[in-house]
Amino acid sequence: MAEEVPQALNYIPEVILKKRKNNEEWAIRRKLQLEQKVKKHKSDNFAIKKPEQFIREYRDKEMDLVQMKQRGKNRSRRAFVTSDSSLLFVIRIGGKSDMHPRTRKLLYSLRLRKIFSGVFVKADARILEILQKVEPYVTYGYPNLKSIKDLLYKKGAGKIDNQRVPLTSNEVVEQALGQHGILCLEDVVNEIANVGPHFKDVTSFLCPFSLTKPEKALQAERARYPFIRRSSICVGSIVSLAAGAAKEVADEFGFFRSAGASTKDAVADVFDGLIYYFDLKEHPIRVI
Fold first, then answer.
1. 24-142 — its CATH code?
2. For FRET with 51, which of 11, 105, 118, 280 sits at 20 to 30 Å CA-CA?
3. List of residues 6+ apart from 91 with CB closer than 8 A
4. Burial class, 267, CB count within 10 angstroms (exposed 0-12 / middle 13-18 / buried 19+)
5. SS in 3 state form for the chain?
6. 149-165 exposure pattern, b = at least 16 Cβ within 10 A, e = fewer
7. 8 Å CB contact between 80 and 123
8. What is the chain's alpha carbon radius of gyration, rounded to the nearest angstrom?
9. In which region does residue 273 sit, left (phi positive, over 0), alpha (psi from -120 to 50) or beta (all else)?
């Protein structure tokens, strides 16, 4: 009788077992994190707010309203509306709880309900006035033909029967805009780029573009100027923005001179005080 040949045992490599164990542990940790997040969110909804928080929110909204009125009143309308530059692309970059309802209403009139959403608009007098009032919450510029095509082909979507429909075929365009002679995406691009007679119909059909949030977010860069000329506009704007700081500098460091000192010396002393106050010694500001 022949001897039975022993069969090889089925085994799983140790690497696979360790990976499976790590995945299970990660899944458990992730589940606990989600449960804690949901629990914290529910507790935050029922958290007791202090009166100071309501006062702060109210003051922020009132200050936003005051600043909006000042921007619309003091700034002259920008004279860049020409036949060659009548198209603007507006992107919302901010604005949440500290926004006044009137400011939010202006943003909604531009169909900018979400942050990092963008729309095409015609740069007429009404639009420019709205953009001035909501300037801290939006950014805008002149799109070229390539940018318009990229937006429509990559992120374009239309509204049909109150449903968002991606622009994946010309049939969608023909169904919505065929009565205006716009039958394909190229017709949409041409109508927007040239701000044609049916521009309003096309932009009303298009849904606001949902743009991707920048990886490094939006960071403001401060320009450094080693020399500032002493003019009424320059000195007035800087001193008005730092009026409180200048007063504190004067009280603490005594940089203001007597009433008989010259204007140039007095202004120079104020700037010297601001330099020390804001710790800008490496970028001195001199009045010439």
1. 3.30.1390.20
2. 105
3. 112, 116, 117, 118, 138, 139, 140, 211
4. middle
5. CCCCCCCCCCCCCHHHHHHHHHHHHHHHHHHHHHHHHHHHHHHHHCCCCCHHHHHHHHHHHHHHHHHHHHHHHHCCCCCCCCCCCCEEEEEECCCCCCCCHHHHHHHHHCCCCCCCEEEEEECCHHHHHHHHHCHHHEEEECCCHHHHHHHHHHHCEEEECCEEEECCCHHHHHHHHHHHCCCCHHHHHHHHHCCCCCHHHHHHHECCEECCCCCCCCCCCCCCCCEECCCHHHHHHHHHHCHHHHHHHHHHHCCCCCCCCCHHHHHHHHHHHHHHHCCCCCCCCEEC
6. bebbeebbbbeeeeeee
7. yes
8. 30
9. alpha
* Residue 95: count of CB within 10 angstroms of its CB: 18
pTM score: 0.53
Beta strand 209-210 with 117-122 is antiparallel
How many Å apart are CA 48 and CA 244, to the nearest integer?
A: 34
Q: Please, how many CA atoms are within 13 Å of residue 214, restricted to the half-sphere of its CB?
A: 7
In the β-sheet with 209-210, what is the strand arrangement from edge to edge? 138-141, 87-92, 117-122, 209-210
**Count of CB atoms within 10 A of residue 51's CB?**
7
Distance, CA of 213 to CA of 123 (rounded, Å): 25
30 or 230: which carries more pLDDT confidence?
Answer: 30
Average pLDDT on 139-150 reads 89
How does pLDDT run across 159-173, given as a tens digit for each residue?
888 889 898 888 888
Q: What are phi and psi of 5, to 5 degrees?
A: -80, 125
Domain boundaries, the chain: 24-142, 144-212, 227-233+243-287
**How does pLDDT run across 77-105, given as a tens digit for each residue?**
444 444 456 899 999 988 776 777 888 88
